[in-house]
Amino acid sequence: MLRAAAQIEKMGIPTVSLIGNAFMRQADVVSRGLGLPLAYAEYPGAPMVDGVEELSTKVRNTLAPGVIKGLTQGRDTPSTASVETEPAAGSIVMSGTLDEIQEYFYRKLWTDGMPIIPPTRERVDAFLKFTDRDPGEVLRVVPQEGREVSILSIAITGCMSGCRPEYMPLLIAVIEAMCDPEFHIEHCGSTPGWEPLVIVSGPIIKQLDFNYGQGVMRVGRQANTTVGRFVRMFLRNVCGYRIPPGAGDKGSISFTFNVALAEDEDTARDIGWPTYGMDQGFKPEDSVVTVRSVVAITPPTYSAGDEAIDHVQQFADVMGATFTYWSHTGMKRGFWHPLIVVGPSIARVIAREWSKEKVRNYLFNKVKVTAGQITHYAQMTSTPTFSLPRLVAEGTLPKSYHESDDPDRLVHVFIDEAMTGILVAGDPGRNQSRGYMGNHDQGAPTSRKVMLPKHWQTLLTSRG
Hints:
Elements: H1 2-10, E1 16-20, H2 24-34, E2 39-43, H3 52-72, H4 98-107, H5 121-128, E3 138-142, E4 147-150, H6 151-160, H7 168-179, E5 195-201, H8 204-207, H9 222-239, E6 261-262, H10 265-271, H11 276-279, E7 288-294, E8 296-297, E9 301-302, H12 308-331, E10 339-342, H13 344-351, H14 356-366, E11 368-370, H15 371-381, H16 388-393, E12 410-412, E13 421-424, E14 432-437, E15 446-449, H17 456-462
Parallel strand pairs: 1-2, 5-6, 10-13
Antiparallel strand pairs: 3-4, 5-7, 7-15, 8-14, 9-14, 10-14, 11-12
Helix pairs in contact: 5-6, 6-7, 6-9, 12-13, 12-14, 12-15
């Protein structure tokens, strides 16, 4: 809302943004990051849980006067009393013992609450050796705090997160993907509390020793764990998405970072399925990262049988139930990307009969919800005006979503079967798969090829 207001203000049109009082600190952070004094009108509490009489009273007594004041009395610049001048890039911020450094960084809100690796000049330089790019190169200015993303800032964040220096080319690719406008990094602090997921494809999986088998999404393997932590540290320290006592991140309950997910490409090739990286348009020899949002994870989905239908029907029944609840967010935009991680043993059974395309088509046709139920889910979240007829009329959804006005008619949960991602990973000795649900166009799957330095093999060898 504030970013839209800033664009309108630049056109010379005054605005007042309606902000719930729980969002006021975040609004100040965003306004400072945009460099504009924007006017707010405050609503006390959460309107979604107020009755009609209470809502009317709050609008009349608080919100409406705030709108009038914002339009007639100018705009107050957000307070900068507590905003400190940031140290120059590459400068030494402190010297001390390990414990002193941990405490100093924690008090500055520069950590995720866990111990960090102090980013000494020597350690950061070790990361910079693994890229041919200039440390001062700026990729983008990012929200919430309007800070520049540089190659140096990526190296520092990687060091603090416990990454190895040789991860640097992959870390750069991750941030390039997140800085792509299609990813919508400006929404990383939204109330659903979605978390980015890094998917790793190609030869880099084995070169950097990523786990793609049993326990693939558990902390424990350094590459998977620290790359996932790096993303969360980047969002905190560079973007400014911090929970209290900081501000900027309004995830209402949220969850912690995802470890990086690497695909079992050996199994995918053996069964004749394209790898996930190939699905994104890359060659098998390319090392690729894809970053996407995860707002919810399905239960572990067990399936048994020696026919494809035995397993894919279980996906539809179990994963489909989780996907169904949140699908209204995708319907509002005509855009969302469910992800299904298929266990290797299950993938082998399915692939004997079905391609990935057939799996997608089956799920598209089988997983449905009534129009009345999905409208109810949307209204309970934050969209009282949700209307399938209107979305069809606007061209956001295909005509099949409004073939009648019957609230009991069934509509597709998967808007477009081609949007469903499928990859192979996990325990080859068990019959478990899992689904990952994205947050509509926020954190849309965005891929980048990992660009290796000229002397990659020599550098890798020297690291042992």
